[in-house]
Amino acid sequence: MEFVKRHRTHLGTLFGLVIVGITFGVVLPRIADYRDVWDVLVTIDTKWVIALVLATALNVITFAPPWMVALPGLRFGRALVFTQASTAITYVVPGGGLVGMAGSFALLRSWAFPTAAVARAVTLTGIWNQLANLLLPLVAVVLLAVESEADSGLVTIALIGGAIFAVAVTVICLVLWRAEFAREIGDVCARAVNATLARVKRGPVGWGGGSFARFQVQTVGLLRRRWHMLTLSAIAGTLTIFFVLLVSVRAVGIDSSSLTWIEVFAGWSIGRVMGLIPITPGGLGVVELGLTTALVTFGGANAEVVAAVLLYRFATIVPTLVLGGATMLVWRRLNPDRHPEGEGVEEPVRNHRE
User: Fold this and answer.
1) For residues 94 and 277, is the Cβ–Cβ distance under 8 A?
2) C-beta neighbour count of 95 within 10 angstroms
3) Which structural domain, as residue segments, surrounds residue 343?
4) DSSP state of 330
5) Is residue 18 part of a domain?
6) pLDDT for 230-283, tens place per residue?
7) Which residues lie closer than 8 Å to 168 by C-beta, 6 or more apart?
8) Residue 233 falls inside a structural domain
9) Is the sign of the CA dihedral 272, 278, 280, 286 positive or negative?
10) What is the DSSP letter of 32?
11) Short-list 165, 170, 194, 166, CA closest to 181
12) Cα 198–124–162 angle (5° rounding)?
């Protein structure tokens, strides 16, 4: 047991590598021979290559708007390079969304945005993205029901996601509704964190219920003005990811008679939910397995489905890795001591107090 505690990080990394190895070395080759998959990929028509490039570019561009809404003063150019860098971190470091949120916080603070404003932006974009992922299976079930294609596995995922969504929304509404409730939640969280830190002889933390109450006031002020823009930009960003998959599916020759867009959406929603499990960086291996299985189950040809999934994952991961890596290399040049865009980020709070 002591060995497990001491080497927990290394064991987690090893387990993730095993999952990736089994997915790409055992499971996917059994679904479709890689030679057949390659034959599919090399026959993609030029027009579909262009369509995929445009869909990928659109997906990259839509990373920025939610952050511009959640962090007033952050302009498009910097939001774009920041989101590529922070997302690239999630693709190379295990831990999923939590690691991405921590990376986002550190990167934005390096631009001298106020701590409270950055924490608010990281929290809101994270919550909106996760809620969207939890809602996707519910939407997929409704769409499949319209086509009379209910899937028991998807229904189960949708019910679980819906339950988590309902609880999360209830808690969020209570926290945003009353500062007293936010204070109580903050005190509970602080006690839990301090108890954990005490075991490793660290702490206590410098925040508590009062911090949560102030955060609640500031957040309500921002959401009153921008909740609709935040919601629309988050939905747009999510749908562009699906659009990349749909283009990938059609590019490899899977037409609507084999897989309708609703079935592709349903399979994609399963992959998105599985990607929330922080086993491997960016859900590598896990997403491919869930998405491939779902699309084959819905009627897609094995080799074409595997080709489409690999193409989709390449288009949504590699460009961000390249752009994010390049951004990190020159980050110091983008990192002045005090960035002028940090000014005015507290404007929603002043409006709320007025």
Assistant:
1) no
2) 18
3) 12-353
4) T
5) yes
6) 989 999 999 999 999 999 999 999 999 999 999 999 889 888 888 777 778 888
7) 127, 130, 131, 134
8) yes
9) negative
10) S
11) 170
12) 90
